[in-house]
C-alpha cells in the first residue's frame, strides 16, 4: 500500500497563515457586527441610572425589562399617558443621533413607535442570542 504525502491529519504549513488570516478577519467582522447590534440595542433603551456604558449582560437585562414595560403599557393604556410614562421617546435630542432608530416621533404615532421599538428590541435580543 502506497501512502500519499498528504494525509487527512497533515497540515500544509504554507496554507496555515492564510487560513488563520481569513479566520481572524471573519472573527473581527463578527465582533464588529455584534458591537453594532449592541449599540443599536442600547440606543433603543430609555436612559438608565448606569453612569458608564452598559455591559452586554446589562444591556440584555435592561432590554428585557423595557420590553416588558412596553408590552404592559400597550396592553393596559389608552395612550393618553405616553409622554409621561416614556418621555425619552419624545426628547428632541433624539434628532441628533445618527441612527435612524432615534428619530423623534409625535404623540399620534407613539403607539406605532412603541410597537416598533418592542419589535426591534426583541429582534435584536434574538439575533444576539443566536450568535
From TrEMBL:
Residues 1-20 are annotated as: Disordered. PROSITE patterns: BHLH. Residues 18-70 form the BHLH domain. GO terms for molecular function: DNA-binding transcription factor activity, RNA polymerase II-specific; protein dimerization activity; RNA polymerase II transcription regulatory region sequence-specific DNA binding. Residues 10-19 have a biased composition (Basic and acidic residues). SUPFAM superfamilies: HLH, helix-loop-helix DNA-binding domain. One of its GO terms (biological process) is developmental process. InterPro entries: bHLH_dom (IPR011598), E-box_TF_Regulators (IPR050283), HLH_DNA-bd_sf (IPR036638). This is BHLH domain-containing protein.
